[in-house]
Amino acid sequence: MNGGAPRVVWFIWPTDPHGVSATSAAQRLIQLHRPAHLVWNPVTGQIVQSLPPTLAASGLNGDLNRQGRVCIQIRVLGSVDEPFTDGKLDGLDDILAWLDSWEVPRRWSAGPPLPYPLSVAAARDSRLWSRGGHFGHSQVPCCRDGDPGTIDVGRIIGRDTAQHAPPQFTFPRPREEMRLLESVG
Q1: Which of 7, 9, 54, 70 is the most exposed place for a label (fewest CB within 10 A)?
Q2: What's the structural domain count of the chain?
């Protein structure tokens, strides 16, 4: 990992969480050479860890997988059309405790993800990405996917945390151009 702010990226693995286990989805991701750190079935609460957080997963483009002290990738069984946060979130407390142990800030730096398919064309801000925290796959710079779609970030990171806006930074204003003396002729 390349260092920097720790972060987590939430993905959707498009499948019915009532009929597919996290183990089965994790095995399929490994077969496709796209393992995630965690695969989570929010309906059953089953969580499968495929990789340690100190190794890069392969769900993001280029070197984005290696950015941050950790760049944890979580595949949630579900659909972009039906927000997984509208249903049961069994196992979420265990995931959050694990993320806390890796010092991932409980903030959604880019704000809540847009609904699918609007999220496919959403702006991705590398400045917000550099702050670390929680991100939807649709919010990662250089990615063009639309998952996880509309999710209630307050149900993931907590209502108190979700209501606070990301920190605003004030940047120094450029100096006004100095007026040069006119050349004397």
Answers
A1: 54
A2: 1
Predicted structure pTM score: 0.84
Tokens of 20: 């597919």
Residue pair 152/83 in contact by the 8 Å Cβ criterion = yes
Ramachandran bin of 173, using left for φ above 0, alpha for ψ from -120 to 50, beta for the remaining angles: beta
Count of CB atoms within 10 A of residue 51's CB?
Answer: 17
Q: Is residue 22 part of a domain?
A: yes
pLDDT single digits (tens) 49-94 = 999 999 999 888 766 666 668 999 999 999 999 999 999 999 999 9
- Is the distance from CB of 157 to CB of 108 less than 8 angstroms? yes
- What 82-86 contacts at long range (C-beta under 8 Å, 24+ apart), as own/partner pairs, is 83/148, 83/149, 83/150, 83/151, 83/152, 84/12, 84/17, 84/42, 84/148, 84/151, 85/151, 85/152, 85/153, 85/155, 85/156, 86/152
The residue type found at 71 is C
Q: Which domain holds residue 17?
A: 7-161
CATH of residue 145's domain is 3.40.80.10
